[in-house]
Amino acid sequence: MIIDGKDRDLLALLSANSRESTANLARKLGMSRTTVTNRIERLEKRGIITGYTVQFSDDYERGQIQAHVMISSDPKSAAKIVSALKKIPAVQALHAVNGVYEMLAMVSAESTQHLDQVLDQIGNTDGITKTTSSIVLSTKFSR
Fold first, then answer.
1. Per-residue pLDDT reduced to its tens digit, 31-71
2. How far is CA 60 from the centre of its chain?
3. Rounded Cα gap, residues 11 and 135, in angstroms
4. Are 65 and 115 in contact (CB under 8 A)?
5. 3-state DSSP call for residue 42?
6. Domain count of the chain?
7. Which of 2, 13, 113, 130: disulfide with 72, CB 3.0–4.6 Å?
8. How far apart are alpha carbons 59 and 39 in whole angstroms?
């Protein structure tokens, strides 16, 4: 989808802080509040903006255990697996990947006990034949 430079600037500001007031966005972009509101509505209607999210503080994130879970599965079960894993709140993202595994789940858990429970849920999902997990020890950078 083609968007103009002002839309890109607006998306960058919203990505940094989706709760930024329309008045502040307008001031930063050199536009009227009405123009900013109209651009946001247009971006939502076009499906470029599909939702808003919460970003956690570094302190909170450091208290969470992050893990990457590689998943082997029956290819015919992919839709069922996606649907089942989407219902597990600790699964933050699910990616289709190439190679030995078909999927990569990004998991965030409150404790090792919680992570163990989530890994059991994932492993017991119909269609999943094997999982391999790696706990993230530190993040060197994130964009």
1. 999 999 999 999 999 999 999 888 778 778 778 999 999 99
2. 17
3. 32
4. yes
5. helix
6. 2
7. 130
8. 34
